[in-house]
Fold:
Amino acid sequence: MFKLLKENVHIAIGSIRTQLLRTILTVLIIAIGITALVGILTLVSALENTISGNFSSMGANTFSMGQYDASAQINRNNNVEKINPIISYPQAKAFQEKYSYPFTSTSLSFTATSTAEIKFENKKTDPDISVLGVDENFLINSGLETQMGRNFTGFDIQNNNYVCVVGSDFLKGLLKDINPIDKVLSIRGAKFRVIGVLKEKGSTFGNSQDLRVLIPTQIARSLFTAPNINYDLKVLVGKEELLDAAVDDAIITMRKVRKLNPVEENNFGITRSDELLEMLRSQTEFMGYAAWIIGIITVFGSSIALMNIMIVSVTERTREIGVRKALGAKRSTIAFQFFTESLVIGQLGGFVGIILGVLIGYGISTGLDFEFVAPWKAIIAAVIISFIVALFSGLYPAIKAAYLDPIEALRYE
Structure:
């Protein structure tokens, strides 16, 4: 059996060489379908991996309070959009002071600007640095760590010390090749001493998480004054089993801060990190479905092309089939020969499609700063699909070749 398979593969390769242009076009048609499937699934895997990486550091035991919850911002399908008031600084401080659920810590922060220019000695950055006003709990509650230096302390925050923690990109630009700790940066004319550098976080949906400076909240409020600043509250629950109760207590506390009566709905949002992660993952499923639909449609077209080339091949080699039958070749032998040829072409198309799909997926993932992962499921699926395409596309031509009348075949010109 193995010897027969080896011989048929050899014959198939010889036939492919004699019809090289037609075979190349067929392989490319199959490859396009596989490329679409593998490429999109590679991108989806990279996106899921990036989302998981960005939120896994936060853990499943954190939640945040804001003007809206994440589902309202991501899934805006309601005809009437409810407009909630911002969380002002007095409200945020009142919540932080009143909320005292066991094993929890609350951080208060806000984005002062995303277009700051930072100066160091005679150098300065582009005006694209984000400045955040934070407290001593912000880093821990946000899943951030310092690779150099230290975090803010309660003393820094309470005494409004002019200190800052910078993102890791500052080590590649403004503070390159020097020890950044205790260096003085200028932000809007104010001098800040660097006390820490954050570990690299990369980008999320094209927005760099490493081009930012963290400064104490009150100092940020004095430097960056703007109307209707919305403040963020993030709560870390020390014991995961207390998360549900902690969220309920936070809702009650915020309702009191907002002075809502019992019949009024919540005019603020709560987003749990585990629910947000699951919601974002569900969004990527649609991309996966699109990949399968596009891939299947294209592969269906390539299967028709492969069947066509095999039928033409049978027609062109009718006399050869007649000679083989006259010399004693069985129907099964003839069928297996053409079937093997179809499999070889199908697997070549699948192989080319897998390589192109992975390369395209990798290129797009890198361009969007997604964390690339090898799409093994997509590769296995592509191998199976290309085999099935070859199986069904080669079945009819193989049967047609096997049942040719040897006398008529020998007379064919």
